[in-house]
Design goal:
By secondary structure, the protein is α/β, with parallel strands linked by helices. Helix content is about 40%, strand content about 20%.
């Protein structure tokens, strides 16, 4: 009998249309909760997010660090051309975080 290794499906967390100081802690909490033992990849779905302030960016960085500490990976699905993508590019985080142009690309890795 041959052993089969099942590829784990990434956990997808759909984030709100706007992430700011009023809900950034909640966004981080959702991402951190998805980083359960045995989950190798968590995808932050920002495809419908049109605004993300500095507290939201900080939540994404914290989630990235939390994933790394747990031996997992955080991937961001952020469409090109939007304000969230621009913020990530202007801050240089687009080169540090795992950013993909859409959800399908983030799932495929």
């Amino acid at each position: 009998m041959t052993d089969q290794i099942a590829e784990a499906t990434p956990a997808v967390v759909v984030l709100p249309a706007e992430i700011d100081v009023t809900n950034s802690e909640s966004a981080f909490g959702l991402l951190a909760a998805a980083l359960a033992p045995g989950v190798p990849v968590v995808i932050a779905d920002l495809t419908a997010t049109s605004f993300c302030d500095t507290s939201g960016v900080r939540a994404l960085v914290q989630a990235h660090e939390e994933a790394a500490a747990r031996g997992a990976q955080l991937r961001l699905a952020v469409p090109p051309g939007g304000s969230v993508r621009r913020v990530l590019e202007l801050t240089g985080l687009g080169r540090v975080l795992n950013v993909y142009p859409g959800l399908d690309e983030a799932i495929a890795g």
